[in-house]
Amino acid sequence: MFGAGAAGSVVPDKPARSTTEDDMTTTTSTATPDLTMARARNEATWRAAAVALYAGDIEEFLAHWTAEPRYSVAYPVAGIPPTVEGRDQFRALFGGFGAAATCIEVHDVRFHQTADPDVAIVEERMVADLVGGGSYENLLAIRVTFRDGLIADMYEYYGQVAHQALADRLGGSR
After folding, report:
1. Hey, how many other C-beta atoms are within 10 angstroms of the C-beta on 36?
2. What's the pLDDT score for residue 45?
3. Cα–Cα distance between 58 and 52 in angstroms, integer?
4. Residue 128, CB half-sphere, CA atoms under 13 Å: how many?
5. Cβ contact 3:94 at 8 Å
6. d(Cα 129, Cα 6) in Å, to the nearest integer?
7. Per-residue confidence at 7, pLDDT binned at 50, 70, 90?
8. For residue 29, what pLDDT is reported?
9. DSSP tag of 64
10. Residue 79: phi, psi to the nearest 5?
């Protein structure tokens, strides 16, 4: 979905204003030290992958994934496969969206570590300015599965109407 030429942000290096709870909320718990360490590792991996993706660096993005990544969606739309597996398919899907965007930003990111050290839920609001004008905005909830410190699988829920409009704009057909 994202690729060369796209610019964006997940968490700025130095915020222009003070960070608020609305900018990045993390859950707190009475987690065990192992779960606390898993959360820190998983969140760092998620952030690093996201920063690379929104900067258009697909190879760096893939460096944070297992050798056989998988991405699937709860609400498939015409023109975009409901499941993408493997690095070549990732390059095509994520690179295609990136090529169609001049700027990609993610706001209201919330990272929720589950009781399973290999599973987290991420909520975010994505906003993209599209090449040739127009924009894409959607709310996302993503179940992320990690393996050996890398992302193995993402299962994404998003606003289907907005995503179908994006697919249509990118050349998908119903």
Report:
1. 14
2. 98
3. 7
4. 28
5. yes
6. 9
7. very low
8. 53
9. T
10. 95, -10
What are the pLDDT digits (tens) for 97-136?
A: 878 889 889 999 999 999 999 999 999 999 999 999 999 9
In the numeric block, which tokens belong to residue 75?
């609400």
**Which amino acid is present at 102?**
T
42: Cβ–Cβ under 8 A, 6 or more apart, which residues? 111, 113, 117, 118, 120, 144, 146
CA distances in angstroms from 22 to 71, 117, 123, 142, listed in the order given: 27, 25, 12, 18
Question: Does residue 88 sit in helix, strand or coil?
Answer: helix
pLDDT at 68 over 70: yes
Instruction: Report how far residue 122's alpha carbon sits from residue 97's, in angstroms, rounded to the nearest whole number.
Output: 20
The dotted CATH code for 31-169 is 3.10.450.50
pTM of the model: 0.80
State the pairing for strand pair 83-85/65-73: antiparallel
